[in-house]
Amino acid sequence: MKVKLSTKFLLALFLILAALHTTKAQRNKPIDRKATRQTKALYHNLRRVAKKHTLFGHQHATEYGHGWNGDPDRSDVKSVTGSHPAVIGIDFSGFSGRSPEAMQAAKERVRKIAVDTYNRGGVVTAAWHFSNPVSPGGFNWVDSVSKPAVKYLIPGGEAHGQYKEILRGMGEWAHSVRGKDGKLVPIIFRPYHEFDGGWFWWGKPHASREEFIALWRFTVSYLRDSLDVHNFIYAFSPDNKFINEVQYLERYPDDEWVDMVGMDNYGDMGRNRYAPDTAAIKLKVLSDYAQKAGKLAAFTETGLESIPDTTWWTNTLLKTMRTYPMPLSYVLVWRNDTRSSTHYYAPFPGQVSVPNFLKFYHDPYTLFEKDLKNMYRRKFLGIF
Predict the structure, then answer these.
(1) Are the C-beta atoms of 157 and 151 separated by less than 8 Å?
(2) What pTM value is reported for the model?
(3) Which of 38, 54, 65, 316 could make an S-S bridge to 76, C-beta 3.0–4.6 Å?
(4) Is 369 one of the annotated active-site residues of the chain?
């Protein structure tokens, strides 16, 4: 007699088995005990840097910018300051939901950016605007067409096999990203970001707490333990819909499954209101938790579209990060669109905030790519 197990039963079984197979999280070390030497060194150096500095990052900085696309060794930040950002943001959005040819082209493009950044000594972080694998609508939640995919992807879900195949493609890519030294490029991987909002299909209104945690744990476990991906640092980053630690940790998958805690916050930084003091309190919540749990901390996404405020860099962003003593590994602002005249978050030559951005650049607290020395060696002769 065949017995059909329910999705809820399989989910509960997975969570129990995951708990049984995890060991106590290592404090101040990657959760991957088999992490590559370069990945461990990056983790250690991000912690060391954060004692006195913060790395500045920009999404898609060297891939394209305001009015240009694909120029070699170019970024809008470099055009203004003479240095690329210290952290370059890439996206795994093209790794699924497209034709095999399109996915391969996306992987090649992103691989080159990651390798070039590593070869220059910069740091790579990857977001994942994951197109809904079980319904139309893309990565956004569209009421008329989107399905709550999380419950389909977790163990016991109808699309679990499909999800494993997507992760296998990601794992193959991770094994292929090697610098000129022959070593695998470490990647700060930030999946399922802003999950406390409802705009993405993995957001809070579309998945239970247990379903989201199961998805996170399975993702990490499958990449790390089944696919032997050992060059990822895993970053957890809700949006800004919290004000205390309990709220921040509401969907936290536990310390065994997270390397870095962060926050995406546009609303307090000028999009909805100027509230640097409120933003600072939220950063302190996650920074305090990071120190208590032995994790890295970062301001994983922020920015002010079009940067009309000529003093935003020092009076809002720098003020927010320096209100309290907070060891933040990096801060990343969003992308500069190639075609849009208004969708940009970092200055380019002639943009009104350039003078203030140069003050931000020269502040001893902020580090750019030219400031970095041997981030991938445990012992190095850096400036920190």
Answers:
(1) yes
(2) 0.93
(3) 65
(4) no
